[in-house]
Amino acid sequence: MIRVGINGYGTIGRRVARAVSLQDDMIVTGIVKTKPDYVSMVASRDFKIFVPDKSYEKAFQDAGIKVEGTVENLIDDSEIIVDATPEGQGEKNKDLYVKRRIKAIFEGGEEPEIAQASFNAYSNFEEARSKDYVRVVSCNTTALARTLHPLRERFGIRYVDATIVRRATDPNDSKKGPINAVEPSLSIPSHHAPDLRTVMSGLNVSTIAIKAPTTLMHVHAVRVELEKDASKNDVIEAWRSYRRIMEIGKNSGITSTGQMMDLAREFGRDRSDLYEIAVWSQSVSVQGNHVSYIQAVHQESDVVPENVDAIRSMFDIADRDRSVSMTDSKLKIEKRVF
Amino acid sequence: MIRVGINGYGTIGRRVARAVSLQDDMIVTGIVKTKPDYVSMVASRDFKIFVPDKSYEKAFQDAGIKVEGTVENLIDDSEIIVDATPEGQGEKNKDLYVKRRIKAIFEGGEEPEIAQASFNAYSNFEEARSKDYVRVVSCNTTALARTLHPLRERFGIRYVDATIVRRATDPNDSKKGPINAVEPSLSIPSHHAPDLRTVMSGLNVSTIAIKAPTTLMHVHAVRVELEKDASKNDVIEAWRSYRRIMEIGKNSGITSTGQMMDLAREFGRDRSDLYEIAVWSQSVSVQGNHVSYIQAVHQESDVVPENVDAIRSMFDIADRDRSVSMTDSKLKIEKRVF
């Protein structure tokens, strides 16, 4: 049983904690929280709570939440830390992990240089093998790697051009905008293109990112120039053996991210999450070697299974297909075609 | 075991089906769907699917979904129908229920005259006892009845004035608006005031309804003139023995409906629902016999436990407190203070 500590229990940390706790080969040693808010109040039923340092303890005590110790205590009781602290904080935390000689996973908000390898289970599981510091790429990069990897493997890829319509913020955030404007990121390529190359080495890719006033999902319009001609059927077939890609057909009646997340609620999973990248099969269009498709990405959860697989790769306890199968089985990810 | 058929499997029908299936004293005999969409695709794993009439069968067969029969077949196999069809359709369906001599529950979109009694578990459980046709009032009316009933019981109520900031539509709907305007309902009182009197007989109440561009929850600003003076503590204390009222304190850090629904996701319930009416305890303000407070209402789910209790009242198999306890226990509704 790999002993996993979770430093940071926000959108990603909470979900990784739950996903790890569902696996047969790993357990959660505890979580680090900074505030005794509603998330801590619920979490304290399931997980041991640690704090960054002793100065945080009193607030938790006042709120009636038991604190087990500091992050150092959590590290001492763990074999790996998943650092899901806010963007940029992981870099500050790394010194501690190095000093205490503990493995660590960082999330996509950190720079690639923080880790020995960036990670996506489908496209480069092997590169994290036995590494001490690994970074799981962001939700958007994960999504692109998921659907592009099978195409690259089957047909080869000459060029990718993706337009990423980003959700403005997460559903629990009422501070950030925009609420009534569309906000393009004016430097092209957006940071997603180089980030994608950290898990799909040498990929020729450009990306444009545009923020839209929604909190539910990202939507990607992807254009791919393959190395050889394919048919629409070939493309869909290439995705068929990958459970983390979900086909959404015309009969499903799903035409928006609103319905897509409603579908996720029907699955009965933790937090009504949608781990799969949902590709509208109706949108898949092929002309010779040019493929276009549209996919929806649940930004809160698509990286969750990736974190679990990264742990297995770093401890060298399973190969890609076995790890992905174990993770998917516990998270109720099955191949679904709608 | 009471045999419950669900006619209409939209926002409310799906949730009532799940809630009924979790009880020890009732089972779901089947659900009626009109389209073989994503909801049907998932539902067919758990429930028998029926259709309004034979003309609907082919579409389901083409989508590979087994149809068990028509709504008449479902009625023949059931002891009660929960009619959660779209607003106004329940009235059309009632003839069939009368003809087939089956009990039926209607939802708040129907007119009160459709039923022998309107229903809220806290305020008038007894009025549905042994009745054949009962209407569970709408989400907003349910919410008002929940928090007003304990105040009326403890202090008496002279007058209520509530402003209802309504969510524009449900999260899975991308057709309706408004998306960027606030839309007051200009007739005062809004329909909620007379509706509330159907479950709180003789209550002196006025309501104003204003639509806001959000899909998450309704928010109510409630002002109550009690028959006698009270303190803030008295008011909160009056709610304390009611599990379906949840206290949200300042330490929780919850200041918006975004965080409120995020809290619900932490509970791990079906569809991440929030059955309780969430009252911000910080907002409770009392001056003599004048009380003000703000509450948030999850429009998709607050009526779900009410439907379960209405069934028990109609079959006269439990009194209010016993039914509510049974329902709450299976839906993981416990008294929570944040």
Give your account of this protein's structure.
The structure is a homodimer of 338-residue chains. Chain A is 32% helix and 24% strand. The first copy, chain A, is of the alpha/beta class. Chain A folds into two domains: 2-137 and 303-331, NAD(P)-binding Rossmann-like Domain (Rossmann fold, 3-Layer(aba) Sandwich); 139-297, Dihydrodipicolinate Reductase, domain 2 (2-Layer Sandwich), CATH 3.30.360. In chain A, the strands form two sheets. The first copy, chain A, has an eight-stranded parallel β-sheet with strand order 4-3-2-1-5-6-8-7, sandwiched between helices. Chain A is globular and about 65 Å long. The first copy, chain A, starts with a strand and ends in an 8-residue tail after the last helix. The model of chain A has no long low-confidence stretch (mean pLDDT 97). At the A-B interface, helix 2 and helix 10 of A face helix 2 and helix 10 of B.
Helical proportion of chain A, percent range: 25-40%
Oligomer: homodimer
**CATH T-level topology of the largest domain in chain A:** Rossmann fold
The structure class of chain A reads alpha/beta
Question: CATH homologous superfamily of the largest domain in chain A?
Answer: NAD(P)-binding Rossmann-like Domain
The shape of chain A, in one word, is globular
Number of domains of chain A: 2
- The tally of beta strands of chain A, per DSSP, is 16
The residue ranges of chain A in which pLDDT falls below 50 over 5 or more consecutive positions are none
Radius of gyration of chain A: 20 Å
Overall pLDDT of chain A, averaged? Answer: 97
- In which order are the strands of the major sheet of chain A placed? 4-3-2-1-5-6-8-7
Architecture of the largest domain in chain A, according to CATH?
3-Layer(aba) Sandwich
Largest sheet of chain A: 8 strands, parallel
Most extensive chain interface and residues per partner: A-B, 38 and 38 residues
Strand content of chain A: 15-25%
Compressed to H and E, one letter per element, the order of chain A equals EHEHEHEHEHEEHEHEEHEEHEHEEEHH
Termini separation of chain A (Å)?
36 Å
Pfam family, one (chains A, B): Gp_dh_C
GO molecular function (chains A, B): glyceraldehyde-3-phosphate dehydrogenase (NAD+) (phosphorylating) activity; glyceraldehyde-3-phosphate dehydrogenase (NADP+) (phosphorylating) activity; NAD binding; NADP binding
Catalytic activity (chains A, B): D-glyceraldehyde 3-phosphate + phosphate + NADP(+) = (2R)-3-phospho-glyceroyl phosphate + NADPH + H(+); D-glyceraldehyde 3-phosphate + phosphate + NAD(+) = (2R)-3-phospho-glyceroyl phosphate + NADH + H(+)
Protein name (chains A, B): Glyceraldehyde-3-phosphate dehydrogenase
